Amino acid sequence: MLVNGAGGVTGGMLVQLAAHRGAKVIATAGADSAGRVAAMGASTVLDYHQADWPEQVRALTAGGVDAAANAARSGSSAAVRAVRDGGRLATITADLPAAERDIAMWSVQVVPDGRRLGALVELLAQGVLTISVTGRFALEQGGAALTQARRGAHGSAVVLRPGAGLEPA
After folding, report:
1. Cα distances (angstroms) measured from residue 168 to each of 136, 164, 165
2. Over the chain, what is the mean pLDDT?
3. pLDDT tens sequence across 61-120
4. Stretch(es) of the chain classified as CATH 3.40.50.720
């Protein structure tokens, strides 16, 4: 399985979940995130700054991955190049490419689902999943939290807490 954009929070969660479920994970991330992504369970981490990373994936897998998850902004068109004919691609970034090579493609939208969230929280409590937090903000400090998130959190989450006040990360 390929996870494109594994250096971010969502991509990192995808790597951890796929590895936990027994998938061999190839991931893309920046050079500064490669070690962290490998520690999450990726067997191979490719630098997404290299324009030929999809071809590197195809070479590593003798023709492409069976499945890819894209969590990189505007990254679906590159990710689909790494998928084998007849494979699958899911993206959370609303940039689903045109159908090609009999690849099944989905644009995934986040929707509230308490049961699934509860299962993820259980995996977090068990230590199967980890999330690094860069800042915690009270709901009243939503603007400051958004500013922090836009600046970039380098794979760490920004958390809003009801009535919590600003706390160190």
Report:
1. 7, 11, 10
2. 93
3. 999 999 999 999 999 999 999 999 999 999 999 999 999 999 999 999 988 899 999 999
4. 2-107
How far from chain centre, in Å, is Cα 77? 16
pTM, two decimal places: 0.90
The structural architecture, per CATH, of the domain 2-107 is: 3-Layer(aba) Sandwich (3.40)
Token look-up 């794979």 returns 155
SS (H, E, C) the chain: CEEECCCCHHHHHHHHHHHHCCCCCEEEECHHHHHHHHHCCCCEEEECCCCCHHHHHHHHCCCCEEEEEECCCCCHHHHHHCEEEEEEEEECCCCCCCCCCCCEEEECCCCCCHHHHHHHHHHHHCCCCCCCEEEEEEHHHHHHHHHHHHHCCCCCEEEEECCCCCECC
Residues paired with residue 118 on neighbouring β-strands, in sequence order: none
In this model, does residue 154 exceed pLDDT 90?
no
pLDDT value at residue 162: 84
Question: Which among 31, 14, 24 has a CA at the least distance from the CA of 71?
Answer: 14
Supply the pLDDT for residue 166.
Answer: 52
Taking the C-alpha atoms of residue 52 and residue 14, their distance in angstroms, rounded to an integer, is: 22
